[in-house]
Design brief:
Number of strands: 9
Number of domains: 1
CATH class: Alpha Beta
CATH superfamily: Response regulator
Radius of gyration: 15 Å
Helix content: 25-40%
Distance between the termini: 11 Å
Length: 153
Amino acid sequence: MRILYVEDDDSKVTDVKKLFKDLIPNNNMVITNSLTSGITEIRNNKYDLILLDMSLPLYDFKDYDNDEEDDFETFAGIDILEEMKRIKVETNVIIITAFDVLGENENKLNLEQLNEQMMEEYSSTYKGIIHYKTSSLEWSNAFKKLIKENYKI
């Protein structure tokens, strides 16, 4: 199984890779670290599953030295889903985020609201959202359940 994981947090990548290794030992997981590199990878390669963080830097840090706040996109996962829809990529997507609320002011959404919005707008590819918390195993159980529901393992 070929998997793309778009994530900028190394510890989260380590945890998800370990979990996937236990679920599907012969997986091939490619990691990208930003909105731009994730979209580039999706345009250039085919995957069986795409895992997305919701909030991502616009560029890979190793490629871009500027740490300014406006170089970060709170809803990058939606931007990637929108690009997938535009270029007609029909790969299953699971969001894995450490935040339980995203955005500010009138753009503020909790995970339930975000899940409903994405189910409505991206129903052909979006499979669910996982609230990642290092202090709990709940996220890993929810993740395993989503994988088992969508893939024969």
